[in-house]
Amino acid sequence: MAPERAATAARTAPVPAPQTQAPLRSFAHSLPMALLRAREAVMRHFRAGLRAHDVTEQQWRVLRALGAHEALEATELAARTCLLPSSLSRILPELEARGLIARRQVRSDLRRSRIALTAEGARLLAAHAPHSERVYRTIEERFGAARLRELMRLLEELETASAGAGTLDEVPDR
Questions:
Q1: pLDDT digits (tens, 9 = 90+) for 46-84
Q2: Interval 4-26: pLDDT, tens
Q3: Which of 122, 125, 126, 105 is closest to 114 using CA atoms?
Q4: Cβ–Cβ contacts within 10 Å for residue 130, how many?
Q5: Fewer C-beta neighbours within 10 Å, C or N terminus of the chain?
Q6: H/E/C letters for each residue in 15-65?
Q7: First and final CA of the chain: distance in angstroms?
Q8: What's this model's pTM, rounded to 2 decimal places?
Q9: What does the domain layout of the chain look like in residue ranges?
Q10: What is the DSSP letter of 99?
Q11: What topology does CATH give the domain 45-155?
């Protein structure tokens, strides 16, 4: 084998899983992966309804947040929808072009703007609401309404516990 090919083969050859000093939880029991798997299992039921209205999941999060609030500044909207500001800045022009949202500059600071749902955006929310509620009823039938309420409570507690000062990876080793 030519030296270049041998070097490439050595770099791309499968490597056995490394042995770590400290044991890692199994990948299947990783909290971030479990949350992602649960999210995907739930979201697959909502996606058909979103596609029917030609709305992406990220766009829907923006519309839902604006439907729950009179108007929000972009930074607050990004935080409430768990979107990076750069992602939100790409989503807003599309929603604005479709007439689903409106942006107005803040008079006291023209660099800032407030974003609100338009009447057309409210109509889209109302049109999708029956599908969304059917999905929720199905989840409640399969999982249990009380268990779903408890899960929501536990997730809120986990979010609060994880949102303390600093990041969890700054916690010293014990």
A1: 999 999 999 999 999 999 999 999 899 999 999 999 999
A2: 776 666 667 776 666 655 678 88
A3: 105
A4: 10
A5: C
A6: CCCCCCCCCCCCHHHCHHHHHHHHHHHHHHHHHHHHHHCCCCHHHHHHHHH
A7: 49
A8: 0.78
A9: 45-155
A10: T
A11: Arc Repressor Mutant, subunit A (1.10.10)
